[in-house]
Each structure stands twice: as structure tokens, then as C-alpha cells.
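Task: encode each sequence below as C-alpha cells.

Item 1
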Amino acid sequence: MTARKSAIVTGSATGVGAATALALAQRGYNLLINYSKSEAEAVASEATCRAAGADTLLMRGDVADDAACRAMADAAVARWGGLNALVNNAGITSFAGSANWDALDVEAFQKILGVNVIGAFQMVRACTPHLKAAHGAIVNISSVAGALGVGSSVAYVASKGAVNAMTLHLARALAPEIRVNAVCPGLITTRWFVDGIGAQNYQHLKSQYEQSTPLGRACTAEDVAEAVAWLVDGARTVTGELILLDSGMHLGKSAAVLRSPTQAPAAFKN
């Protein structure tokens, strides 16, 4: 019987983190489930992973705290004898929007960077010796915000741009032992947006998104988890990639228009 591998997924109580933990559990990984606030949801996420056959650890910790990051790495290695994967999913934002780009004060800006960027860096630093020994993988959950410069707040956009740049740097620095990639979702159908902007505003945003993207659909947590699991458990020749999971949003609205023959320029008509 093949020994199960092990992974840490930060912020894995709900949404993308919980879906990713489950996807890895189903692929033969033991999981460290991390949360900072949502204890009840984290317990449920852990139970789901256990039902899928995984041995689990449940740890509360803020990734902005370096000691908490080191404690997670140490606990995983103590439990399973090594570490095969790290998924940096924990993230926060402030919903200010482009019209109110200057609404955030310095403290709020620094808090977002502290979790989204420094937290990811600290987790990588804590886990790298163990991941190197296992020839493991790191996947950073970024956002299309970091690639296109649009998002919930200027601080969030800046943080995800930094995550993308850090992903490229670490892919070079940690090769050949560790593969480092990032996924960059667009609109996700989780409570993240609903809680941030309200149900009515979210439905309006979702409708606009579906009408303006070539594939016409928002991303589910399971869509993201599937991509992450592939990068962790397969993709043996893939590193330094920023994979956009945005239904073609980065192509612009024109792509959605040109797919209709009745609206195509005359030069494209038979």
C-alpha cells in the first residue's frame, strides 16, 4: 500500500481552501487544516477530509504571525514525517473598489499585505526545507486582480500582484527540488463576495461577469481546487506558471462579441 502524502492548506475552513483540502484528501493526501476565525467550519472541513480517507490535523493560526507558520510546518512533519505540498490560500481584503481606491488607511493596507503576501512568504520559508526533501510543490492562490489590476481594493490588487511576482521568483529560487505555481481566479461563487458586497450587488456583478466573459461562467471553489490539485499532484514539468481561472476575462469583452457570427466584422463573414 502506497503511503499517503501530506499537505498544508492555509485558510482551509471554507470556500476554495476547504474544496482544495478535500480534493487533495481524495487524491491520497493527509491534510493540515488551518483557520484563523471560522472554527466550526474548520471542524466540518476536517471531518470531510477524514471521510475521504485522510489523516488530519486542525490548527488555528494567523499566517501573518511567523511563529504560527513555523508551528504548522513543524506539526505536519512531526505527524507525518515529511511534507509534500503547501497551498497558500489564506487571504483577506477590504471591499473599497476602484472609485474609492484611496479609502483605505495605512493600517488596513498593511494588514492585507501582512496576510496575503508576508503570510505566504512566511509559510514558504517555514516549509521549504521539508518540501525540498520531498521534491514537493507550492501553489499560491492569487487572483486575476494581480494580473489585470482590477479587484476589491487597491491593497488587494497590490497584494496579489506581489504574490504573482513572488511566485515567479520562488519558482527560480527553489528549483529543481520544488515546483512553485499560482492560480488566479476571477469571480468565485463563494461567500467571499456575498459577504463583502451584499447578495444583491453580488448577483449584479455575477450577471455582468457571465455576460462579458467568453466562457460565460463564474468560477466555483471546486474549479479552483481541481486546478490546484493538478499542480500539486501532477504537472511534473510545470513551474513558474500563473494560471488564470477567469473564463477568459483577460481576453476582454471583444472576445465575447466576436464569437457571434451576426456581430462579426464583414471580413469574417462568408
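Item 2
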Amino acid sequence: MTNDKKMKLPRTTLILVLLALGLGSFVYFYEIKGATQRQEIKEQKQQIFSFAEDDVQALTVKTKKLTLNLERNNQSNNPKWLIKSPISEPANDAIVSYLMDLLVKGKSDAYGGKLRTLPTPANQLGQFALDQPQATINITLKNQQRHQLILGKHNFNAVFLYAQTDSPTKPDGNVNVLLVPIDFEKAVNRELSEWKQSESNVKSTPLPSNLPLPIPTNAK
């Protein structure tokens, strides 16, 4: 009887050790490693768009007072962007980069790790000023895929803007309205002069070294 008990103890201990190891592995892979992966997925889902800055070939920014067509300068990185219309000039890279950063890294307002979307019937988008938006941004990628962001009015506390992307209308006839950073308003509502490359950034052409020196006017 005593010998049987002595033989069963190691077996029970071994089972407990194996259970503890299994539980520890589960905690590591699900709670620790899995939590990191879930956070990455959550962050990705919160982004307005999934493309990278280098994927974008052209932008069209349409506001109530200006329609601006921008195209990536494939010949040089200075400037990185060119204005194609309503004028043809180098673009202010800092201004365009500010908008690009919002498009690529900007996130919809999130609550509890989920996108804050407001399912809205298509015929009621006017309550968010999305039927007559303050701005529309059309994005063309290098692979010719196209995306669109429509910017409406402020939300109730003027912290976000109501917006609509090119996501399809759902089977129930609703459209998802997003809350996006209000910084978009500043990024697009600019004068044409702001979109142009500033004079200080235009490289001056060096003068030839063999030019004759000017003659003083009082020389005799």
C-alpha cells in the first residue's frame, strides 16, 4: 500500500509540471505575444487607408475655392511633388507631405479599439455636410488603384471631422461615416500660393565665373 502511494506521487507531480508548462506556454503565446499581434492588427484597422506614402502617384484636392492636381515628380526628389493644374509649377513639398502624412498615418477616432463609424443611410449624409463637402481628396496609386476621402463638417465638439471614404455601400443601404482628425481641414483649405514651392526653396543658378567685374560709376 505504501509502495503504491510512493509510485503514484512522481506520476502526479509530473502531470502537474506538464500542466504548469502548458499553461505557461498558453499565457506567453496568447497573452503576451498574441497581445502584441492583436495590437498591430487593431492599429492597422484603425487607419483610414492602408497604402504607404511611396504608393501614391497623384492627388487631386478639391475645395470650394480651388481644384488642385498634384503629381509625384518621377525625375527628381527636389521637389518631390509637382503642381499640374491650375498652374504648372513645383509644389511645396512640406505642405504636400503634411497632407500625405495625414492620409497615410491618420486614424479614425477609435473607442474601445474599434473604429468609430456611424452607419448612415445614403440619403441622410447631408446632416454631416457630406453631400456638399468642404473638400474632396482623390488619390491615385502607382498601380492605378483609386481612393477617395470626402470631408464634411466638424463633430459636436469640433475635435474631429465627419468623413466618408470610398468604402462600398453596405447591403442594408447604409454608408459608414468616419470621424477623422480635424487637421485635415487645415491641410486642404489653403491658397494656391501656399501649395507652390516657396522662393527660398528654389535653387538659384550660379553666375559664370568669367563674368567681367562691374566698373564703378565714379571711375575717371
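Check on item 2: Residues 16-46 form one domain. The CA atoms of residues 129 and 139 lie 21 Å apart.
End of task.
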